[in-house]
Structure formats: C-alpha cells, structure tokens
Amino acid sequence: MSGHDSFTAVILDPAGSTDHAATYNAFVKYAVALSIACFIILTSLCLFAFGPVGSIFYGFGGLIVGLIVLIIDVRIGSGNWLLSGGVAVLFALFAAMLVS
Fold first, then answer.
1. Which member of 11, 29, 43, 84 has the lowest number of beta carbons within 10 Å of its beta carbon?
2. Do 38 and 83 meet the contact criterion of CB atoms below 8 Å apart?
3. How far apart are the C-alpha atoms of 77 and 54, rounded to whole Å?
4. How far apart are CA 96 and CA 100, in angstroms?
C-alpha cells in the first residue's frame, strides 16, 4: 500500500529543487512585501500619534494609498519594489514634515 502513495513531484523531480526554489522565491517576495507594509503602517501610526490635529486624514490616506500600491507591486511581480518602496519613502518624508 505504501508503494502506491508517492507524490507526483517526487516522480517528476526526485531532488525537489524546483519546489524548493519556488518556495524560497515566494518566501522572499512576501517577506519584503510584509516589511514594506510594516513600514507604511508604522509611519501612519507615528503620524496619528505625533502629528497635528488634522493629520489623521493624512495618516489614513497614506495608509490606504501605500497598501494599494504595495498590492499592485506584489501582483506585478517585477521584484525590484520601486513603486511601493518609493511611495513608502515619500509618505515617511511627508509624515516627518508634518510631525516636526
């Protein structure tokens, strides 16, 4: 019975290198995306806590725009993260101007 319970991936690729490479690439991709998302969320939290009275709208606006751009960048899958990284840096600079 155990002789018939083999996986298709083991038959096609006995070493499992394609599965390993795909898993590693997906892990790195989503780890970078999670890091950028955390940076955007922390920037908006700093804007909520230390910004002027009307900065709550800027914080939510930056949070929503930043996360939408991050989702677009993940779906494109180019791997260079220029779009979402640029928006995150611009949002952080804008928040720094409002806080100080």
1. 11
2. no
3. 36
4. 6
Q: What are 30-75's pLDDT values in tens digits? A: 999 999 999 999 999 999 999 888 889 999 999 999 999 999 999 9
Sorted by sequence, the CB contacts under 8 Å of residue 70 that are 6+ apart come out as 33, 36, 37, 40, 84, 87, 88
Q: Quote the tokens at residue 29.
A: 């991709």
- Tell me the one-letter amino acid at 70: L
Residue with tokens 């955007």: 40
Query: Which one is predicted more confidently, 5 or 59?
Result: 59
Give me 95's structure tokens. 């928040």
